[in-house]
Amino acid sequence: MAKLRLALAQHDFPVGAIAANAAHMRALATRARARDAQLVVFPELALCGYPPEDLLLRPSFLAAGTRALQQLAAELPAGIAAVVGHAEPGGEVFNAASLLRGGHVERTYRKQLLPNYAVFDEKRYFRAGHDSVVLDLDGARVGVLICEDIWHAAPAAAARASGAELLLVINASPYDCAHAAQRERVLALRARENAMAIAYLNLVGGQDDLLFDGGALLVQADGGIAARAPAFVDALLLAEYDSATRSLRALDWPAPQYEDLAVLYAGLVRGVRDYVRKNGFSDVLLGLSGGIDSALTLALAVDALGAERVRGYRLPSRYTSALSGREAEAQARALGVVCAELPIEPGFNALLHTLAPEFAGRVPDLTEENLQSRIRGVLLMALSNKLGALLLSTGNKSELAVGYATLYGDMCGAYAPLKDVYKTTVYALARWRNSSGPGTGDRRPGQSRGEVIPSAVIERAPSAELRADQIDQDSLPPYDLLDAILERFIEGEQSQAEIVAAGFDAETVRRVARMVLVNEFKRRQAAPGPKVSTRAFGRERRYPITSGWRP
After folding, report:
1. Is 111 an active-site residue?
2. Does the reported pTM lie above 0.90?
3. Which of 48, 147, 339, 412 is catalytic?
4. Does the active-site annotation cover 345?
5. Does the CA dihedral 335-337-340-345 come out positive or negative?
6. How many CB atoms sit inside 10 A of residue 432's CB?
7. 407: DSSP letter
8. 419 neighbors 530 (Cβ within 8 angstroms)
9. I need a labelling partner for 544 at 20 to 30 A (CA). Which of 106, 210, 224, 536 fits?
10. What distance in Å separates the CA atoms of residue 287 and residue 344, rounded to the nearest whole number?
11. With bands split at pLDDT 50, 70 and 90, how would you rate the model's confidence at 467?
């Protein structure tokens, strides 16, 4: 009976960085071999990064991946094999996993089930494989599956019928806040169905509007979870498989997070850090309004990058309250962020004067409110250009859903950390950050603990402060009610009739649904932001801008 020591490389492998990813794999294989691992395992499509999208349509990209795979096989340290996720060309393109051993590519498994729903579009690029592959690794018989394969019964059963005693599942499975529990249930079911232990490895890191949470798992043959890896943390995870007992054992894994808000916050921080770094920036800036959204965004930015790489700007107008200015400055001081003030009143007056002939005889309305927001957008974009710092947009999902945001104003920015976070969750995350903060393993040196988001900002009535005595509830239902309707209408895809039948006021439901449907044009022009829900705006929820359909 054999014992197999394997290293699961829960790491980030950026899209398109083929040479850098291969070098990272070699370094990780060397580390794994130094810890007596016989096998190192990398995530789905790790060599080219996931999702490579239309890069897969470029022959030069596919050829570069093939060369890198062959070179990696030749340069692996002696005494260790590797399972590598990659794109396999050759007339048709496959989402593949190859065993590298003895200096060459020994066996290749081709993903059998290609997802084509939600954020996935794999049938555009890949052809499906049909055959099981079972690897003989120092006496252990190991079946290989890729991501979607494990969500269906047939591929695991076929691997078992082909003689596998352990299943190795490599993944590039995006995070959403409801997915982890479902993932564990499916893995436990497959393990029990086949009386086989499962080693589950997932990609980690941010890629455009996707987040990959890692969260590697060891599942015993009876469905019990033997080990969980922390989410959003790069780690080389050692495990041992014992053929005699058909069981897996974790070797010194870091402790996972269990609190939902802790995992979500870690994901948002990771999204900011990776988007900034992978797009060649080091610094960010944002407007500080004294409201809850900019306050949470500032905390996320500092936790992701460090205070020295974050700049805040107060952009007060005639309607900005003393509380807003005071609390924005207080938060910047608490986090160690440089905060400058650029009043928009001179620009506002100048534009009103310029527009006066055309506005004559018309009463002030939303136009003047939006003008203030757009002045702020112009100033922040100018600062972004001049300073070479990436501008963070601070809007949340509730506002974006109903169009309570100004196009070319507060929607300006290169990345929107809260784009998929409802307003009620923004408040919950702010309270969590004040009371708990990132865990020890997630904190940067010198990172602030305690109340970094002023309690006055959390407790005040939310307001855009674009007219006198304005509060959001003048234009919207209370956020707890609004979010409850939005979650049913967006995540649940419920009809208005179903939402009303659940106890919501019919006129309020009708009004909210209409706002969602008519504001698709704004969302199409919004900055990307990390997907954290089961139905994010963007690649996952695709509605036409021009549509005559009204439910």
Report:
1. yes
2. yes
3. 147
4. no
5. negative
6. 17
7. T
8. yes
9. 210
10. 12
11. confident
